[in-house]
Write a structure and sequence with these properties.
Layout: E1 4-7, H1 12-23, E2 28-34, H2 48-61, E3 66-72, E4 78-85, H3 98-106, H4 111-117, H5 121-132, E5 142-145, H6 149-159, H7 169-179, E6 183-185, H8 186-190, H9 202-209, H10 220-227, H11 248-289, H12 326-329
Parallel strand pairs: 1-4, 2-5, 5-6
Antiparallel strand pairs: 2-3, 3-4
Helix pairs in contact: 1-5, 2-6, 6-7
Enzyme class: hydrolase
Function: Ubiquitous transcription factor required for a diverse set of processes. It is a component of the CCR4 complex involved in the control of gene expression.
Subcellular location: Cytoplasm; Nucleus
Length: about 325
C-alpha cells in the first residue's frame, strides 16, 4: 500500500504537482470525505427522493473537513494517496452535529490544526477541477466511492463554487454525470457479490477481501485508499476494467425500458377491458331487439266449435257438426 500524503497550506504547490504527475498514468480515483455530520437524519424506510432532500439540506448547510483521494490504474496499482485538510470549517461557529464532531476527535482529527494550517476549499478545488477535467488531455476519469452520496455531494458543490445542489435527485444525478462522468459505489457492488453484503461497512468489507488498511480509520485519506482496490470484487460481475458499463446512464436506460413495458401492459389491459365492455353492451342490445315469444297453451277461437277441449290430437281438428233437436229433424 502507498503512504498517505497530507496537503496543507504550506505544501500545497508541491503536492499538487505530484497529483498532476500521477494523473498521467491513472484513470481511476477513489474518494472519501469527512464532514461535520448530518443536521437532518434520515430514517431507514425513507424514499430515494426523501434521502436526497435530506442530503441536499445537510450538504448545503455544512462544510467538508477533509477530502481523501487515491489515484490508480486499471490494474489496481495505486500511484498515490492524498488527504486534503480544509481550513473553512470552524467548529465554534459553523453548523455541525456535535456527536459527529466528538466521534471524529476520538479518531484523531485535530480541528485546531486543520483550521490554522489547512487549505481553502475554493483555492484547492479550482486547481483540482482543472486537473481532473483537462480538456486538452481528454482523459476519462472514473470515480469510485463507498456509500458515496455525501462524498459526491460535497465534491459537486465544491467544484461549482459552493452553489446549492440541484432540487431533485434526478437533477443531481445529471450533474454528477456531467461533471464527473462514470461513478462506482463499492457498497452497492458488494451487495451483488456472493458471500458479501451491501450492509457491510468499509472495514468489514476490507477484512472479508483481505485488504490491509494504511493509516487510521475515519480519516479521509485512509478510507479512500481502502476503497481503491474495488477490482477485487469487480470481476465477480464480469466487468472489464477497460470498458466498464455499470453507469448511471445505463441504470436510467433500464428504468426507462421498464417504464415502457409497464405502460404497454397497462395499455393492453385497458384495451382488453374496453373490448369486453363492448361485447357486453352488444349482448344487452341483442336481448332488447329479440321479440318476445310465448310457448304456453293458447285457447282456440270461440266462434268455431271444436271437439272436447283439449283434444289429444291437438287444437286443429275437424269441426263437429252441431246436433239438431228431434223437432228440427222432423
Amino acid at each position: 500500500m502507498t503512504t498517505i500524503r497530507e496537503i496543507w497550506s504550506w505544501n500545497k504547490t508541491e503536492e499538487m504537482n505530484l497529483v498532476r504527475e500521477s494523473l498521467r498514468s491513472c484513470n481511476y480515483i477513489s474518494v472519501d470525505t469527512e464532514f461535520p455530520g448530518c443536521l437532518k437524519e434520515t430514517v431507514m424506510e425513507a424514499s430515494e427522493e426523501t434521502r436526497y432532500q435530506n442530503l441536499r439540506f445537510n450538504v448545503d448547510k455544512t462544510k467538508p473537513i477533509q477530502l481523501g483521494f487515491s489515484l490508480f490504474d486499471s490494474e489496481g496499482a495505486i500511484s498515490g494517496t492524498w488527504e486534503v485538510n480544509f481550513s473553512d470549517f470552524d467548529e465554534t461557529e459553523d453548523l455541525c452535529n456535535e456527536k459527529s464532531i466528538a466521534f471524529l476527535k476520538r479518531n484523531g482529527l485535530d480541528f485546531k490544526r486543520i483550521r490554522e494550517e489547512g487549505v481553502g476549499i475554493k483555492d484547492f478545488f479550482t486547481e483540482f477541477t482543472r486537473m481532473v477535467k483537462d480538456e486538452e488531455d481528454k482523459k476519462i476519469i472514473n470515480w469510485v466511492t463507498f456509500d458515496g452520496s455525501y462524498d459526491l455531494g460535497y465534491i459537486i458543490q465544491s467544484m461549482t463554487g459552493r452553489e446549492r445542489l440541484p432540487d431533485t435527485s434526478l437533477g443531481f444525478n445529471d450533474t454528477v454525470q456531467k461533471l464527473l462522468g462514470l461513478t462506482f459505489d463499492v457498497k452497492k457492488l458488494a451487495g451483488q457479490c456472493k458471500g458479501l453484503n451491501s450492509r457491510f461497512g468499509l472495514q468489514r468489507l476490507a477484512d472479508e477481501l483481505g485488504i490491509r488498511r494504511v493509516g487510521e480509520a475515519h480519516h479521509a485519506g485512509s478510507d479512500s485508499q481502502l476503497t481503491a482496490p474495488f477490482q477485487i470484487i469487480g470481476p465477480l460481475f464480469l466487468f472489464a476494467t477497460s470498458n466498464l458499463t455499470f453507469s448511471r446512464d445505463l441504470k436510467r436506460k433500464r428504468e426507462h425500458e421498464r417504464e415502457i413495458v409497464m405502460i404497454r401492459r397497462e395499455h393492453d389491459r385497458l384495451q382488453q377491458h374496453l373490448f369486453m365492455q363492448q361485447v357486453m353492451e352488444q349482448e344487452i342490445l341483442m336481448r332488447r331487439c329479440v321479440p318476445r315469444r310465448c310457448y304456453g297453451p293458447v285457447h282456440p277461437p270461440r266462434p268455431i266449435m271444436y271437439a272436447h277441449y283439449p283434444s289429444p290430437r291437438g287444437y286443429f281438428v275437424v269441426p263437429v257438426a252441431p246436433r239438431l233437436s228431434r223437432n228440427a229433424q222432423q
